[in-house]
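User: Mind token order:
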Amino acid sequence: MKKQLESRRFVIAMIFLAVGVIYVARLFYVQVLDDHYKLDADNNVLRRIVKYPARGLVYDRNGKLLVFNEAAYDLMVTPKRIQEPFDTLAFCRLIGIDKADFIEKIDKAKKYSRYKASIFEKEISAKGYAKIQEQLFNYPGFFVQTRTLRSYPQQTAAHVLGYVGEVNAKKVADDPYYKSGDQLGISGIEKSYENALRGKRGVERVLVDVFNREKGKFMEGAYDSSAISGSKLQLTLDNELQQYGELLMQNKKGSIVAIEPKTGEILALISAPTYDPNLLVGRARSSNYKTLTQDTLNPLFNRAIMAKYPPGSTFKSINALIGMQEGVLSPNTYYSCNQGYYFAGRKMGCHVHRSPVNLVYSIETSCNAYYCNVFRSIIEKYPTAAEGYLAWRDYVTKFGLGQKTGIDIPNELEGFVPGTDYYDRYYGEGRWKALTILSLAIGQGELGFTPLQMANMTATIANRGYSISPHLVKSISDEPLVLIDSTLERRETGINQEHFKEVVEAMAKVVKQGTGTLAKLDSIEVCGKTGTVQNPQGDDHSTFIAFAPKNDPKIALSVYVENGVWGSRWAAPIAGLMVEKYLNDTIAENRKWIEKRMLEGVLIANSAEEEE
């Protein structure tokens, strides 16, 4: 009997011991291993608020503010903390969404995490936040965190500045810095200088009560970190010149690119049509972006760095320089022109002017026949056409043509200067010669250059043989870019400096008394060259390159006006006005009529009219 009692006592003790072990194990699992309850408890008393840094401000070269930040608010949700019953309709009215949107957003938040906060509605304005804040305590599980939105007070330079948008899943996966809901630069300067502009996030932990009201900082902020604002950027752009160029190009398609020759600093980069960069900010960004992409005039397309045009007659200056460097041309070389160049039973036409023609007059009057002779003499100097062409092509690319300049905004295209393999495929190896590709002599044929490349080429002529990498940022947080970016370099053409004298003199005569007189200024000697670019889809394009003053140039630029026909009609007067605006800061009274005609000129219908 005694043994039975002891046996039962032992069994009961073991049962209690087993139960105790189970409880201890369960408590250990709940409190140490499983963070489910810890998260739930923390979410009831603590709120982790991300403090988004203000993105860096952006200024023009003269200190004019181009981009700043405005306060905005993200409505956050922690699905697990939403309490029932929940008045969905009242909440939707408060936020300004419908029930379908509410369900979609809640489902998305639950898929992300039931226990962690995520964005429910982003980028609410200060006015909208004021309305929501008064009622938010009625909706546990929801709270607001502050962020900033970009604002563009000058409403200009949209293609340069770019815009900011939400990171995608791939970016979040590839870069541990970014979290879902973060913003980053999508295009323009905002994208190229993202690391400098974005700053560094901070975190704030606050205590909240059961009614979702903040009760103060956790541990008096001991575990908080401050947000660090992004770096300030100073651009090379001159805002007044940029705005003026955009006005001149209104109701037109094309581009203006202006460069300071000695530094490679871009003074203006205009793509027309353009748009107000404020359209791609905040909650309306998606709908506005869709509208812009559907616009038949394609305002989002950056013609300055992406459109490819033949250079037309502006290219004759380059062929003159190559001819002199190759020793097949001198200032006293004369060629006849009988309203064109005749070859193989064909004719490349030219307008009426005196004949024979020397080098300076050939540029002044833009003689096609002269440059057919020059191009042919360059190619035929070598044993084969392929060897001659490769020598010629090497000079062309050293002017930065047909290749990326390396400008510090994304999506620049290369342009095109064919290789010998291109002609071998088309005509057969050894079966083509100078006359086969004669259109290159006058800047036509297969050549395709961006307006930026043409402006850089013009700066190279202005510098008498070299260029500096074109760039848009002058300094980062007051540190000069030249000390930061090792890609800025001086690029030589390989053409002797003395050869530029005659070409520069000829370009000065183009403006004084030739085809570019509408770019002529009383107080400044402007050098330029007109071009008419053949366009199989409609009217020819008007183009003009220029720099000024003739000696010690301060500005070099290219102008393309699509369907403007002659270079003298639109591009030359626009270039002259840009030079005058930059160097004199005002337009002379005797040139106001030119300004009026350019400002009022309409070469395109607006997209709404086209759709009708």
DSSP finds 22 helices and 21 strands in the chain. The chain has two domains: 46-235, 300-561. The CA atoms of residues 318 and 396 lie 8 Å apart. Residues 2-33 form the longest helix (32 residues).
